[in-house]
Design goal:
CATH superfamily of the domain at 221-370: Thiolase/Chalcone synthase
Shape: globular
Order of helices and strands: EEHHHEHHEHEHEEEEHEHEHHHEE
Structural class: alpha+beta
CATH class of the domain at 221-370: Alpha Beta
Largest sheet: 9 strands, mixed
Strand content: 15-25%
Radius of gyration: 21 Å
CATH architecture of the domain at 221-370: 3-Layer(aba) Sandwich
Helix content: 25-40%
Distance between the termini: 17 Å
Strand order of the largest sheet: 5-4-6-7-1-8-13-12-11
């Protein structure tokens, strides 16, 4: 079998930017309204008063300074506090397809491939646009790609798991070139009235061309892949098609994304650090040989802690572990490949590791070498 490479990547993100000060101002105005409206119940101890957020709290908790979003105006409007979108409809492209096509074209240009070169399209995301038809097939149709296409969902590991599937398809002889697309339109699923999560997510999309053909000048050979899953309810969403038929009652807020942040931090960081360490050891690679750690952009503290555990010191050049989260926010499964796309200026022979960790728990690491 010939070598399998990351041959090209492309990213898309919306123009609207929300700063921490802006999102805090909106949230705190909501808090004032809530506390004033519920003043009597709060004084009687029936409900708890809401607490203010702050830019200092957000930066300390996450490292996020800004986020790109699809609808700044309505997210910041305390009477709306969510982006406005239109229903999925056969008369127009889905929002996921639009983002995916934009990123895909950039990835294809970088990989120097056209639609005729691509054998399959895999779309991985944390938030499915609809049940069917597959958005991957919608994009395949728009780009004029033959072969097969399908959607998959593994939370914030959807991108790396999709790349793994693409590698497997190529290694088995099913395909020579696969286009992986990961649209993460997360803001419609955020409860902007919750202090611990109102600031976390941005919107974006990444696309990656995986191939055994050498047509581009920026190839990264995939040396090895490693995956693991472990069940946890600490990151969860209960929204699904079953909601319509449910006999019990849950509020929309209870059905949206929520997480037990402290437990996730305490459980995931050591798990991922050990996972990466073992993966490198299995491939006879010393952590000091890794030139870049392109990790899931959950928050900057997690990224830095994981890297420090792997390399054995917390005194390292920050360029070793890029943090696009500062500008783009948490981009769910697209975060690790956003980091790769923006910071992959390695020299020939340099090695790096792409690693995701998300709901499930699900973890995937991919060791690559610049060609």
């Amino acid at each position: 079998m010939s070598d399998v490479h990351i041959a090209g990547t492309g990213i898309w993100f919306p123009e609207d930017i929300i700063t921490n000060d802006e999102i805090v101002s909106s949230f705190n105005s909501y808090v004032d309204n809530f506390n004033n409206h519920n003043k009597n119940d709060i004084e009687q101890g029936n409900i708890e008063a809401m607490e203010y957020s702050s830019s200092a709290f957000i930066e300390k908790a996450s490292g996020i300074k800004t986020r790109h979003v699809i609808d700044k105006k309505n997210i910041l409007d305390i009477n709306t506090m969510m982006p406005r979108v239109v229903h999925e409809d056969e008369s127009r492209l889905s929002i996921h397809a639009k983002a995916g096509i934009d990123a895909a074209k950039k990835a294809m240009d970088q990989a120097n491939v056209g639609p005729d070169d691509i054998d399959g399209v895999i779309l991985g995301t944390s938030h499915a646009a609809r049940n069917y038809p597959s958005v991957a097939i919608e994009i395949q149709n728009e780009l004029g790609i033959q072969g097969y296409a399908y959607d998959m969902l593994v939370g914030c590991s959807s991108t790396t798991f999709a790349i793994n599937n693409a590698y497997s398809d190529i290694a088995s002889g099913l395909a020579n070139t696969v286009l992986v697309i990961n649209p993460e339109i997360s803001t419609p699923f955020v409860n902007y009235a919750k202090r611990d999560i109102h600031f976390i997510f941005g919107d974006g999309c990444v696309a990656t061309v995986i191939s055994n053909n050498k047509k581009s000048n920026n190839q990264y050979k995939i040396l090895d892949r490693k995956l693991i899953t472990k069940f946890s309810n600490n990151i969860r969403s209960d929204w699904s098609y079953l909601v319509r038929a449910a006999s019990d009652e849950k509020s929309i807020e209870d059905l949206l994304f929520y997480q037990n942040g402290n437990s996730v931090f305490k459980e995931v960081c050591p798990m991922v650090a050990e996972f990466i360490t073992t993966h490198l050891k299995d491939n006879n690679i010393n952590p000091s040989e890794v030139s870049k750690f392109w990790l899931h952009q959950a928050n900057s503290r997690m990224v830095n802690l994981i890297v420090s555990k792997v390399i054995g010191t917390d005194d390292f050049d920050t360029s070793l572990a890029p943090l696009p989260i500062e500008k783009f926010g948490n981009l769910a499964s697209a975060g690790s490949m956003f980091a790769f796309n923006l910071h992959n200026d390695l020299e020939k022979g340099d090695k790096g590791i792409i690693c995701s960790f998300g709901a499930g728990y699900s973890v995937c690491s991919i060791i690559v070498e610049k060609q």
